[in-house]
Amino acid sequence: MKPAQLLKISRPRFWIYTVGPFLVALAAAGVLPPVSVILLGLYLTLPANLLIYGVNDTYDYETDKLNPKKQSYESLLMRSSTRSLTKAILLLNLPFIVILLFLLPINAWFWLAVFIFTGVGYSMPPIRAKARPVIDMVFNILYVAPAFAAYTALTGSLPPAPVMIASLLWCMAMHAYSAVPDIAADIASKTPTVATLLGRQKTLLFCGAAYVAAAIISWQYIAWLAIVSGLVYAVMIAASLRTTSDEDLFALYKRFPLINTLLGAALFFTVALTS
Q1: Rounded CA gap, 217 and 206, in Å?
Q2: Could you give the domains of the chain?
Q3: Residues in Cβ contact with 40 at an 8 Å cutoff, skipping those fewer than 6 apart
Q4: Which residues contact 33 (CB under 8 A, 6 or more apart)?
Q5: The model scores a pTM over 0.85
Q6: N or C: which end of the chain has fewer CB within 10 A?
Q7: Cβ-count burial of 273 within 10 angstroms (0-12 exposed, 13-18 middle, 19+ buried)?
Q8: How far is CA 113 from the centre of its chain?
Q9: For the segment 119-162, what is each residue's pLDDT rounded down to a tens digit?
Q10: CA 125: distance to chain centroid?
């Protein structure tokens, strides 16, 4: 498989979801990262995202072929490409994982293992959390698990419990929101998700509640930014609730990575300046 194809499968516009929390963890720790943590950051670019989305594309073919999103916004992985993709995933991931296990302190291993387990188990049978409503949202902790690993490696302790809870709520809301545009394709392929379970409106309402709860919990750490973030996400959900077609909702969804990137950048600088 060509490098350009692997890059496309890794969804570069979504790399911020692994790299962003990692950078915030560095800012929160407030110390210069050693080589082991720098390597973890490098791993969270192409290799880790190819693991997440490559495994996802491999096992989501029956759903993806029914999803219009795969015809334009993303790409449909053909069955004939799965073997070469699997080889690429292993080639890019295994060396990093082995080196990180040697270099990272033991107390960071757990969160690296959580990332690998949830990143693969979300899509791959027999777990396939993607098709287990509610559990699918919880497995989205995969996006902040490497950040917890980095923070633990740098400080010797976990982030404060409220921070971890707010992070999980953010991950769950992010997953649920991204599942809404896929409702029709998931129903057609008989893939149950939190969005097919709750339906469009209730899923969006849950997302709004989770984002607001995360903002409230975060108030003691990031003050004004918690208010701004909560308001931005609340407006986004309100706008989504007002849409009357899948096309209109998907148009909003395509702005989602930009919103997360801008708020993530603000979070990084806020934490860096206050730590």
Answers
A1: 16
A2: 3-274 (1.10.600)
A3: 22, 100, 104, 112, 146, 149, 150, 153
A4: 26, 41, 150, 154
A5: yes
A6: C
A7: exposed
A8: 16
A9: 999 999 999 999 999 999 999 999 999 999 999 999 999 999 99
A10: 20
